[in-house]
Amino acid sequence: MNNVMQNPELKTGLVLPLMEQFYTIQGEGYYTGSAAYFIRLGGCDVGCHWCDVKESWDENLHPLTPVDHIVSHAQQHGKLAVITGGEPLMWNLDVLTAELHKKGIQTNMETSGAYELSGEWDWICLSPKKTKLPTQSVFDAAHELKCIIYNKNDFKFAEEQAAMVNDKALLFLQVEWSKRDEMLPLVVEYVKNNPKWRISTQTHKYLDIP
Questions:
Q1: Residue 66 included in any domain
Q2: What residues does S-adenosyl-L-methionine bind to (predicted)?
């Protein structure tokens, strides 16, 4: 039995399964290079085989943490919070984002979009996965589409997702880290030939920071 799911406070968003929180530099997408406080929530059923945080998948491994505790730590570290996972939209994020906004903290999210949108967002980075496609609510609200390139077929998937997202969303291609030597030259050429796309690199891994 999933013990986390049985907690009534989880449905209201007053508690969330917290894997970790840390202050670092955003390494990917539009906000690359910005200082940001990361709030990583446990729980994900999307199941990307190349995921580098598989330890986040089982929400039962991560303590249900009161939102006020999460926010009190966030406000000690700048004015930008990034909610990530796992898959953060598995949970009700209305309370978390409202409380962060009350403290003057910008709310960014990184999501596969596999669940309906909750929360009040200043920036949504949608990174869709083939195993569980985004909901229309996230396509409509995304500020940034970030498609991971693991093999050549992923270019076709990226274009399919770009056709679904709203027309104001910025478009990024990002090579999966283990494939960077093989696929990065192809991504460079693709972006040169299709300049609506930009390249996102995992800068934090080059900098050797979390």
A1: yes
A2: 50-52, 86, 127-129
The reported pLDDT for the residue numbered 114 is: 97
Binding residues for substrate: 25-27, 40, 84, 210
* pTM over cut 0.70: yes
CB 20 within 8 A of CB 40: yes
Residue 35 identity (one-letter amino acid)? A
Q: What is the pLDDT of residue 2?
A: 58
Residue 160 maps to which CATH number? 3.20.20.70
Q: Which residues of the chain have pLDDT under 70?
A: 1-4
Closest CA to 110 of 71, 161, 144, 156: 144
| Residues annotated within a binding site | 25-27, 40, 44, 48, 50-52, 84, 86, 127-129, 210
Q: How many domains does the chain have?
A: 1
Residue 48's domain spans which residues? Answer: 8-207
The annotated binding site for [4Fe-4S] cluster is made up of 44, 48, 51
